[in-house]
Design a protein that fits this description.
This is TIGAR bisphosphatase. The chain is α/β, with parallel strands linked by helices. Helix content is about 35%, strand content about 10%. The strands form two sheets. A three-stranded parallel sheet has the order 2-1-3, covered by helices on one side. A two-stranded antiparallel ribbon has the order 4-5.
Length: about 240
């Protein structure tokens, strides 16, 4: 949750370093992280291994924090499940006293995602406003947007023009957050925004919490700068081959 701001464990640091090595050839244009310590340390470890982005500023955002669990924070998961059972409910829909509801978490995710879309539209507009200036992506090597899972992860990459996305991205954004929060964000993508999913993805995989440093990749298209109807394709979900 949010109330116990613990650092990464030794295992957590090893996992973060592994994720950094896995993503070392991906050139990010922006990096955002939850402002909780474990996410900050993960983001720093990822950038520390990156060939292109070692000195990039990490922007911390409270909207990316883990779900708030109120009176259950700092206690074993078994205690949360017992609280839910006593209330006649089940995890994860159960909300402990002082905690956030799933709808409140999803609202945070929606707000942050709309902020990212607005950022991308403004970046594109700035490029158009530069008279005679080449676009950020034109004339640059496609290698800067090479993703390590592209060749083996899913069919979604080809259906979303993934082979060409390396040269037309206006932004390539790394977001470091938390398991329960990300599950709710992905739920928002699927239920509210009709995200296209990999054909081989099962319902249980879709509803599961990502392993630590699991990587999910989404391609977002905003046709004509339309913020109301983003086209979202999930290339891979909770990828963990680096662990």
């Amino acid at each position: 949750g949010q109330g116990v701001d613990e650092p990464l464990s030794a295992t957590g640091f090893r996992q973060a370093d592994a994720a950094g090595s896995f993503l070392s050839n991906v050139k990010f244009t922006h990096v955002f992280s939850s402002d909780l310590l474990r996410a900050k340390q993960t983001a720093a470890a990822i950038l520390g291994k990156n060939r292109f982005c070692k000195d990039m500023e990490i922007k911390y955002d409270a909207r990316l924090r883990e779900r708030k669990y109120g009176v259950a924070e700092g206690k074993p998961l078994a205690d949360l499940k017992a609280m839910a059972k006593d209330a006649g409910e089940q995890c994860p829909s159960f909300t402990p006293s002082g905690g956030e509801t799933l709808d409140e978490v999803r609202e945070r995710a929606r707000d942050f995602f709309e902020f990212l879309c607005q950022l991308a539209v403004e970046l594109e507009q700035k490029e158009h406003d530069k008279a005679g200036a080449p676009g950020r992506s034109s004339g640059t090597s496609g290698e800067q947007f090479v993703f390590p899972w592209t060749n083996h992860c899913s069919e979604a990459e080809t259906s979303s023009e993934g082979g060409r996305s390396s040269t037309v991205l206006d932004a390539n954004i790394l977001v470091v957050s938390h398991g329960a929060y990300m599950r709710n964000w992905i739920g928002y993508f699927v239920s509210d925004l009709n995200c296209t999913l990999p054909e081989n993805l099962t319902k249980s995989q879709l509803s599961s919490v990502s392993p630590n440093t699991g990587v999910s990749h989404f391609i977002i298209k905003l046709e004509n700068g339309n913020l109301l109807k983003p086209k979202i394709t999930c290339v891979c979900l909770n990828q963990d081959s680096h662990l």
